[in-house]
Write a structure and sequence with these properties.
Strand order of the largest sheet: 3-4-5
Largest sheet: 3 strands, mixed
Number of helices: 3
Domain MIP18 family-like: 8-79
Organism: Paucilactobacillus suebicus DSM 5007 = KCTC 3549
Pfam families: FeS_assembly_P
Protein name: MIP18 family-like domain-containing protein
Strand content: 15-25%
Number of strands: 5
Oligomer: single chain
Shape: globular
Radius of gyration: 14 Å
CATH class: Alpha Beta
Length: 104
């Protein structure tokens, strides 16, 4: 994707490379990513949630997200804003992710 593509769109595409190892589906299609934006200091702020509090994959996901997004020239630092509201639910998953997991 060219740099003419909006940052958020490019960042979300990159985050589709971060796969939840337990479910085998990327975190974007799982509905875990609520927002991605560059702040005024060129920090990439990722607002996200997890499927459950105390998720054992938190560090893995943080590292994988940071690795994907630090590859952008305009990103100085990646900051992850973990939120619990709105709570994650199956309805946040993309149609493709639900089909892949056999959830209709």
């Amino acid at each position: 994707m060219s740099n003419e593509t909006p940052f958020k769109e490019r960042a979300l595409a990159a985050l589709e490379n971060v796969i939840d190892p337990e479910l085998g589906i990327d975190i974007v299609n799982l509905g875990l990513i609520y927002n991605v934006e560059l702040d005024e200091d060129s920090n990439c702020v990722v607002t996200m949630t997890l499927t459950i509090a105390g998720c054992p994959l938190t560090d893995y996901l943080n590292d994988a997200i940071t690795e994907e997004l630090q590859g952008f020239d305009e990103v100085k630092e990646v900051k992850i804003n973990l939120v619990w509201e709105p709570a994650w639910s199956i309805e946040k998953m993309s149609r493709e992710a639900r089909m892949e997991l056999g959830i209709h």
